[in-house]
Amino acid sequence: MKKIVLDALVQNLDLLNDFVHGELKDNSVSLKTQNQIDLAVEEIFVNIASYAYGSQHGKVEVSIQTDKNPLRTTIVFTDSGVSFNPLAKEDPDVTLGASERSIGGLGIFLTKKYMDSVDYCRKEEKNIFTMVKNLE
């Protein structure tokens, strides 16, 4: 598994995207799949950067592993911020119009929809969010 450790700051999203793209480049990932991964990576990273540490600064470790059989990638976000399980929040009612829905939750909803599996746990005072995407 390869990893990168970044300051949990929104402006580091481009560095994270470059890291993820570099790890996926040899796997003939379709544009649609790449866009789905990009959206999920952005959602989780921006949530950590925006909420995990409050007014303090912290780090986030992102690990990625691509397996060949079956062809899939696993991306793991680990931070030491406040405990928060994004999967515990109820999905938004997407049958309502945008003006009728409450704000928030759509990014996590799309992450759950686009990834083949997502998981959250809190271990040793760390948030660990894992997502898996089949690449075939």
Question: How are the SSEs placed, and which strands pair?
Answer:
Layout: E1 2-7, H1 13-24, H2 31-52, E2 59-68, E3 71-79, H3 106-114, E4 117-123, E5 126-134
Antiparallel strand pairs: 1-2, 2-3, 3-5, 4-5
Helix pairs in contact: 1-2, 2-3
Keywords, separated by commas or semicolons:
136 residues; 5 strands; 30% strand; 3 helices; alpha+beta
Could you walk me through the main structural features you see in this protein, from its secondary elements to its overall organization?
The chain is an alpha+beta fold and 136 residues long. Helix content is 32%, strand content 30%. It has three helices and five strands. It has a five-stranded antiparallel β-sheet with strand order 1-2-3-5-4, with helices on one face. Helix 2 (31-52) packs across helix 3.
Q: H/E series, N to C? A: EHHEEHEE
Strand arrangement across the biggest beta sheet: 1-2-3-5-4
By DSSP (H or I, 4+ residues per run), the number of helices equals 3
Mean pLDDT: 90
Helix vs. strand class: alpha+beta
Relative strand content: 25-35%
- State Rg: 15 Å
Oligomer: single chain
Number of strands: 5
Low-confidence stretches: none
The biggest sheet amounts to: 5 strands, antiparallel
* Overall 3D form: globular
Helix content: 25-40%
| N→C terminal distance | 20 Å
Question: How would you briefly describe this protein structure?
Answer:
32% of the residues lie in helices and 30% in strands. It is α+β, with helices and mostly antiparallel strands.
